[in-house]
Fold this protein.
Amino acid sequence: MEDRSAKYRAFYAQLICGAAKAADPRLEQAFRTVRREPFAGPGPWSICLGGHPYVVTPDDDPAFLYQNALLALDPARGLNIGMPGAHAYWLSGCAVKEGETVVQIGAGSGYYTAILAHLVGPGGRVHAYEIDERLAGLARDNLKDIAHVDVRGRSGIAADLPEADVIYVCAGAAQPAAEWLDALRPGGRLVFPLAPEGMYGGMLMITRPDDGEIWPAKFLSRVQFIGCAGLQDAEAGRRLGEAFTKGWEGVQSLRREGVPDETCWFAGEGWWLSTAPAPLPTEPVRPHADITQI
């Protein structure tokens, strides 16, 4: 069975990373190396494409796991291991490097934590936060043999977050948590779904500059996620829904000071997104069609 799983993984990794136009061969190697079986639990499994009903696999053949689809961890609550093609695209966008420190918010059972651990290597570190006690327990068990990963069974919105080069958030929010922004090192990247629960928003990447309160920012794609506890706001969600109907691809910077001007795409409390560039250059946005619901 392991030989079959390795064959499936090789094809799956090549397929999803090719679709994501991932330039770093380490990303394909990560998806090729990390087995999904431990993180999915025993089969049969419930699988779906975003926004569609789950379909139960006829048996526990691992071939069913190596598809670009959502894999249910808790179908009743809509908790999934997210769509691999979309995660490959986002991870390619934030360019996780060997030796970096990553904070992951919303680890689930730990599959993408393991992918991140492969990308940073033994010289790096991954701190994974998971507020759901059952999932945190599964993640600890699944990741126990990876020395440079620790799983913290609590909220990832806290003032004591470790300093990080990358913060990778797998839960939708109506705003970037100030704690995430403060934990980033200069040059660090925050990637999170600006998408309150139940709303189709966007995966936003924000880069911390060496100084100043104007940060490069861009949307990597549209997205829908399960909500991040503590960062929901119905009114902000309503206004974000309106904002996404007009030129989300033009966002170029996050402002943490000043009065929103005519370049404002969306204004939150103490922050706003602008279509004007930040002092540091940003790469052009590559559109992506995947719809991910986690």
